Amino acid sequence: MYTTIVVGTDGSETAGEAVRQAMALATALGSRLEIVSAYEPVPRSRLKEEAQQAPRDVQWTITPREDVEATLDEVAEPARAAGLTVGTHARQGDPADAILDVAEETDADLIVIGNKGMTGARRFLLGSVPNKISHHAPCSVLIIRTT
To answer: Rounded to two decimals, what is the model's pTM?
Structure first.
């Protein structure tokens, strides 16, 4: 029924609930789990400054994706330990677009996301992640009530 499940995370507690439920579904159904996290571009000056403050042998690891890759590794570890086949995707840009792109690329059958999104003026201007995904998804969407 669902052979590939895509779930988005930003490392927050509410996103963690969506990941836990996606893992439970993937385990029950024998599905592949694709975990997505998006990041904003980081100015080169900030990256250079951070690299200069780090020891020489680890300076090469300081990239715009560094934090998001750490989040993805942390989230993927329990899924892999549970025996799931897991893919991770760090994408620059809008979180909803990142999730939608990975869903299309992996021919996903289901996207799992938490219901808590942006609030205030930012939500009005950009739209919430769950709202955008529910309107543009190439597959079924499961919105997990996290609040």
So the answer is: 0.79
